[in-house]
C-alpha cells in the first residue's frame, strides 16, 4: 500500500483529436512499465474495438505508472461531448487534470465543456500545449486563448495561475520553455509531481469510498470502481453499500484490484488515495457509497447532465427478420439495454405499458446512441430504430429545445455556402475569423434538430473540406419548423434480387443504395430521388429478351457505385416515416408502411 503523500491522481482532458491517448502512450513507454522486447501498439489505451476503428476514446480508462518514489494514477477520458458522462464521473476521483490544447488550433468546443466541469469541481488544471512540433503552430496565441477561456468560465485566481508546459505526444518530449532541449517526458513528470496535490483523507478513519464507475467480471460479477476517500479496505472485510435511496446492505469484499501500467493487479489491502476496483458488492451502481459498517457518512450522488436525444428500438418485423441475427425478441433487446444502463448513467430507458414492441432510449447525442447500436449488432442483435428526436422541456412555461455550439473550419471560398446552409437551419453566428492560410473558423449556436443530417450536406457543399464539431450548450425557446430532407427516396415495389439492367435504368434520376445481386423487399428504400418526392420503383426488373441480335442493339451498362451508409449516416438520413433496419451484417432503410393508397399515390407521382 502506497503512502498517500506519494500518490498523484490525474485525468487527461481535451477536445477530440488533440492527442490525449498519444501523449499517454509516451508517458507509459517512458515510465518503463513495458519489457524491453514487448511489442507496444499505438494508442494502447484504446482497447475497445470501436475506439480503434473510429480513432476516438469512448470509455474512460485507468492506468498507473511509477516515477521515482511516486505512483501516478492516470485516467484517459473521452474527448467527444456525447461521452461527457464518462468525464463527469471520473473527475471526482482525481486531484488535478492535464488539459491538452493543440498549439496550432487553440481551445475548441469540447475543451470548454471539460474545462468547465473541472473548474466547477475546484480542480487546478495543468495546461499542456501539445503538438508543438507541427508546422505553423502558434503556442503564444493558444496559451492566451486558453487563459481567456479560463477567465470566461469563472476560474478563481488560483486556477488562473495555472502551470503549463509544451509537449509532443507523438515525438515523446516535453519542455518548460520553447528553447529547452526536446529530449523526453521528464519535465512533464516533474510538473505533475510538483503541481498535483496529494490525495487528502485520514487513513485512520473508517473506510469510505464512492463508486464512480462500474466494472463486470464473469467470476465475481459487478465491481465498484473509485478513489478511497478515507481509511483502509482489506480483502475479506465486511463493508456496507448505501444506495441513493439511503438503503444500507452489508457485503464481504471478495477482491481488491489496482493497476500497474495497463495490467490489473490484485491487492490484499488499499488505503486513502488509491483508485481501486472492489468486487463482491452485489448490484453496486454509480454514486453508491461504500463504507465501513460503523461509518455514518453518506456521500451526495454524482450529478450527471440529462440526455438530449431519444430514439425508438423496435422488433425487426421485416421480411428478412432472423436471417442475420440471433437475438430478435423485444425481451432480449430490453435485457441488453437494461444491462447497458447499469454502467452508463447518461442513458435513459423508457418502456410503455400499452406498447409491447417499442423501447425508447435517450442519450447525449447521435454518436452516443450509434456506439450502443453498433455494439448490439456485433453481439448478434437485430432490430429497427426510428429517427432520433430531440427531448423537449418546458422551462418557465415555455416550450424549449436543446441548442448546440458548433465550431466549423472550412476554406474561405466555401464559407458563404456554409453560412447560408446553417442559416436555413436556424443557426445564429457567434464568431467568424479567417487566418493567413485562408481557413475560416466560425461558431454557430444552432438547434440540435438543425444539426441532424447537416454534416453530410456540408461535406457536399464544401467538397469534403469541412471540419465540424459541436457540443450541447443550453435549452432555449423552440425555434419553430425546420426544413426537412431536400430530396425524396426510391422505394422498392416488390421483393427479389436487384440486377444491373434495372439499376442502370434508375441511376440517371437517383443515387442508388443497392448494387446488382442485393436482396430487396417491398417498402425497402433503394435510392435517393433527384427530386423532392418519393417514387416507387422496380429495381428487380429484368430485361425483356427478344430474338433480335443486331450490332448496337444492346447498350453497354456502366454502373455508378452505390452509396453505402454508416450507422450514423443512416440514422441522420431517414425521415419521420422511415426506419433503419439493423442486423449483424446489414444496414437497410425502409418505409414505416406501404399500403395500397401509398402505391397509387407514388405511381401517379412517378408517371
Please tell me how large the radius of gyration is.
27 Å
Are there runs of 5+ residues with pLDDT below 50, and where? 602-607
The main pleated sheet reads as: 9 strands, antiparallel
Q: In total, how many domains does the architecture comprise?
A: 5
Question: What is the helix tally?
Answer: 15
Beta content: 25-35%
Class per helix and strand makeup:
alpha+beta
In the CATH scheme, the class of the largest domain would be: Alpha Beta
The CATH homologous superfamily of the largest domain? P-loop containing nucleotide triphosphate hydrolases
Q: Which of globular, elongated, flat, extended, rod-shaped describes the shape?
A: globular
CATH architectural type of the largest domain: 3-Layer(aba) Sandwich
Helix content estimate: 10-25%
N- to C-terminal distance: 79 Å
The total of beta strands comes to 36
Structure overview:
- By secondary structure, the protein is of the alpha+beta class.
- The chain folds into 5 domains: 4-195, 3-Layer(aba) Sandwich (Rossmann fold), CATH 3.40.50; 208-292, Beta Barrel (Elongation Factor Tu (Ef-tu), domain 3); 309-390, Elongation Factor G (Translational Gtpase), domain 3 (Alpha-Beta Plaits), CATH 3.30.70.870; 393-477, Alpha-Beta Plaits; 489-606, OB fold (Dihydrolipoamide Acetyltransferase, E2P), CATH 2.40.50.250.
- 23% of the residues lie in helices and 32% in strands.
- Strands 8, 9, 10, 12, 13, 14, 15, 17 and 18 form a 9-stranded antiparallel sheet that branches. Strands 2-3-1-4-5-6-7 form a 7-stranded mixed sheet, sandwiched between helices. Strands 19, 20, 21, 22, 23, 35 and 36 form a 7-stranded antiparallel sheet that branches.
- A hairpin with a 5-residue loop joins strand 12 and strand 13.
- Helix 9 (366-378) crosses helix 14 and helix 10 packs antiparallel against helix 12.
- The protein starts with 6 loop residues before the first strand and ends with a helix.
- The model is unreliable at 602-607 (pLDDT under 50).
Amino acid at each position: 500500500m502506497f503512502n498517500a503523500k506519494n500518490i498523484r491522481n490525474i485525468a487527461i482532458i481535451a477536445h477530440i483529436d488533440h492527442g490525449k491517448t498519444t501523449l499517454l502512450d509516451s508517458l507509459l513507454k517512458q515510465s518503463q512499465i513495458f519489457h524491453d522486447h514487448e511489442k507496444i501498439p499505438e494508442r494502447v489505451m484504446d482497447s475497445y474495438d470501436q475506439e480503434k476503428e473510429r480513432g476516438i476514446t469512448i470509455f474512460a480508462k485507468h492506468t498507473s505508472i511509477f516515477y521515482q518514489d511516486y505512483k501516478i494514477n492516470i485516467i484517459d477520458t473521452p474527448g467527444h461531448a456525447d461521452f461527457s458522462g464518462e468525464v463527469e464521473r471520473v473527475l471526482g476521483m482525481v486531484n488535478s487534470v492535464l488539459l491538452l490544447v493543440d498549439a496550432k488550433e487553440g481551445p475548441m468546443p469540447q475543451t470548454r465543456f471539460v474545462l468547465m466541469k473541472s473548474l466547477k469541481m475546484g480542480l487546478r488544471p495543468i495546461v499542456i500545449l501539445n503538438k508543438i512540433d507541427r508546422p505553423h503552430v502558434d503556442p503564444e496565441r493558444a496559451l492566451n486563448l486558453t487563459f481567456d477561456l479560463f477567465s470566461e468560465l469563472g476560474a478563481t485566481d488560483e486556477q488562473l495561475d495555472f502551470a503549463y508546459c509544451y509537449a509532443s505526444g507523438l515525438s515523446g518530449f516535453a519542455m518548460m520553455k520553447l528553447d529547452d532541449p526536446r529530449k523526453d517526458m521528464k519535465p512533464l513528470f516533474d510538473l505533475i509531481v510538483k503541481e498535483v496535490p496529494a490525495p487528502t483523507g485520514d487513513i485512520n478513519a473508517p473506510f469510505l469510498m464512492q463508486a464512480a464507475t462500474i466494472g463486470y467480471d464473469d467470476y465475481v460479477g459487478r465491481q465498484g470502481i473509485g478513489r478511497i476517500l478515507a481509511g483502509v479496505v482489506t480483502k475479506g472485510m465486511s463493508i456496507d453499500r448505501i444506495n441513493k435511496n439511503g438503503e444500507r446492505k452489508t457485503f464481504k469484499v471478495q477482491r481488491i484490484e489496482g493497476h500497474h501500467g495497463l495490467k490489473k493487479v490484485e491487492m490484499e489491502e488499499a488505503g486513502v488515495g488509491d483508485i481501486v476496483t472492489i468486487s463482491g458488492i452485489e448490484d453496486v451502481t454509480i454514486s453508491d457509497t461504500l463504507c465501513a459498517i460503523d461509518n455514518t457518512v453518506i456521500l451526495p450522488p454524482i450529478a450527471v447532465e440529462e440526455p438530449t436525444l431519444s430514439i425508438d428500438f423496435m422488433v425487426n418485423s421485416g421480411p428478412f427478420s432472423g436471417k442475420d441475427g440471433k437475438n430478435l425478441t423485444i425481451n432480449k433487446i430490453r435485457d441488453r439495454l437494461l444491462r447497458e444502463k447499469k454502467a452508463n448513467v447518461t442513458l435513459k430507458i423508457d418502456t410503455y405499458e400499452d406498447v409491447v414492441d417499442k423501447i425508447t432510449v435517450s442519450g447525449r447525442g447521435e454518436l452516443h446512441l450509434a456506439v450502443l447500436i453498433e455494439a448490439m449488432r456485433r453481439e448478434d442483435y437485430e432490430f429497427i430504430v426510428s429517427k432520433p428526436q430531440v427531448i423537449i422541456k418546458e422551462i418557465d412555461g415555455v416550450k424549449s429545445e436543446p441548442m448546440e455550439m458548433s465550431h466549423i473550419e472550412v476554406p474561405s471560398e466555401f464559407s458563404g455556402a456554409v453560412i447560408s446552409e446553417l442559416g436555413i437551419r436556424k443557426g445564429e453566428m457567434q464568431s467568424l475569423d479567417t487566418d493567413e492560410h485562408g481557413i475560416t473558423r466560425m461558431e454557430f449556436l444552432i438547434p440540435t434538430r438543425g444539426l441532424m443530417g447537416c454534416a453530410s450536406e456540408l461535406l457536399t457543399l464544401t467538397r469534403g473540406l469541412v471540419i465540424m464539431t459541436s457540443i450541447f450548450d443550453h435549452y432555449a425557446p423552440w425555434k419553430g419548423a425546420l426544413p426537412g430532407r431536400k430530396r425524396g427516396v426510391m422505394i422498392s415495389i416488390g421483393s427479389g434480387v436487384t440486377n444491373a439492367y434495372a439499376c442502370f435504368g434508375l441511376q440517371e434520376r437517383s443515387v442508388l443504395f443497392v448494387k446488382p445481386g442485393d436482396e430487396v423487399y417491398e417498402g425497402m428504400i433503394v435510392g435517393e430521388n433527384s427530386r423532392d418526392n418519393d417514387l416507387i420503383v422496380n429495381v428487380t426488373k429484368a430485361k425483356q429478351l427478344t430474338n433480335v441480335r443486331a450490332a448496337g442493339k444492346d447498350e453497354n451498362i456502366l454502373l455508378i457505385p452505390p452509396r453505402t451508409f454508416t450507422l450514423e449516416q443512416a440514422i441522420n438520413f431517414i425521415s419521420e416515416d422511415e426506419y433503419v433496419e439493423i442486423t449483424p451484417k446489414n444496414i437497410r432503410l425502409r418505409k414505416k408502411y406501404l399500403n395500397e393508397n401509398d402505391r397509387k399515390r407514388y405511381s401517379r407521382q412517378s408517371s
